[in-house]
Fold this protein.
Amino acid sequence: MNPVAGIGLRSPHLAEIGRERPATGFLEIHAENHLAGSPSLQAVERLRADYAFSIHAVGLSLGSAEGLDAAHLARVAALVKRLEPAWVSDHLSWSVGGGRYFNDLLPLPYTEEALDVVVRNIGRLQDVLGRQVSIENPSCYLGFTDSILSEPAFLAELVSRSGCGLLLDANNIVVTAHNLRLDPRDWLSGLPGAAITQYHLAGHAVNDADGEPILIDDHGSRVGDGVWALFAEVVKRFGVRPTLIEWDTDIPPLGVLLDEATRAAGVIETVLQAGGQDAARAA
Amino acid sequence: MPLALRDLQAAFAAHITGADRADLVAAVAGDTIPAAARLSVYRHHVFESLGTALAATFPTVQALVGTDFFRGLARAFVGHALPVQPVLTEYGAEFPAFVAGYAAARDLPYLADVARLDWALNLAFHAPLGGRLKPEDLSALPMERLPSMSIALAAGAVLVSSRYPLDRIWETSQPGAANETVDLNSGAANLLVLRRLDDAAFVGLSEGEAAFVATLAEGMSLERAAGAAFQIDPAFELSTSFARLLAWEAFAALQ
């Protein structure tokens, strides 16, 4: 297995991974699933010697105008200190407001004000953790009329003002581009490629919104053909990065995840052999 | 005049929880999929994903009422009390009380107690393992000190009492359990929920043992706890019951 492709470590697979130690590039956990302390956290700690880890937070709410929740930030920081992962990330979105948590990656208007807010929040996160974090492009189901920047331009500004890295989710690009009538390949233009630290791949669902198809980022199926095609384009443009297969609902047998990771490694290999070497090696 | 981000987020939060906000709809770009329909994607996901989280925390409640009924119950609860922080295994403390007052579940009077048991198992599963009191820790102490000592329950250990046979209800609701009918009048249950090395579980206590544990949990001495147990059950055997509790590692190590 190409060491570059990894899988999410989810509770249905914990015992099997602990027992079988399958070959995979790295393991990713959601920070919020491991903050409470439980037998599963001890199982994760036992795997640390054999796998590189990525801690992916989903609840820091980096886009909240009211700032970060100090208590949650402290818990995430304690987990990062305990597990010393290779990568730490969260999303360009918000999920907390007025003391309530919405359990969703809610969209931001891409304005100067929002840029200031997110840069300030990322700065605080990076200061508390004492390390760089990577910010993931979200799946969007709407855009705001007040936005003055495109999403990739907003991400580029975040990189330049906060020093953060980027986590590029190819599925989210396909979902957002479809829903907001954008061209996914155009979306890639203007991204600061050197800042990209990881790629994510996942499946999405197609739902109906007032009689029109809308793509939903549900992480509940195999990676779709359109996402594989865009992923090949991403690797060609920006080079090889650790690549995660995400699957969070209707979680299949472990073998299916490993199979998807093998396919991701195969796409990377094909791009390299077809002459994408320059970009890939430059990274 | 654009909405300030703080105001936009307050409007979004209000909209998600059901209040249609015209100012928010106006701030969203719509096309053949109108702004309101786009916003509903988020509203739908918030309720559905939190319902899924509640189903994971209260699996026995869901098994008893079925997924459709549970979805409605969960939606009502989410509308009543959103999480206050992002760790979803800590969401649902108010769910048992909500179930108790849920009109559509009036015919299932034991359901709130089942929710309390699911919640206690969830808390125990996520409790720190911590040191446990061992019989040899006590044998090292002078005998005369024992009666006046107070002994804390292990982290995550909690007593769940019900006028219904909660243990039988729980057992027959587990995946793969035989399809049995439980006689709701077959007796009360006193269950001690415990964090074990790799999971959480419960053991059934007698009335006397339950009084003993409940009194210790209030910080009272062993002597007081034994007194409370004898009062409930004159046949309470302190040494037997105490040995059983020690064997289950129900107490925290002495400080």
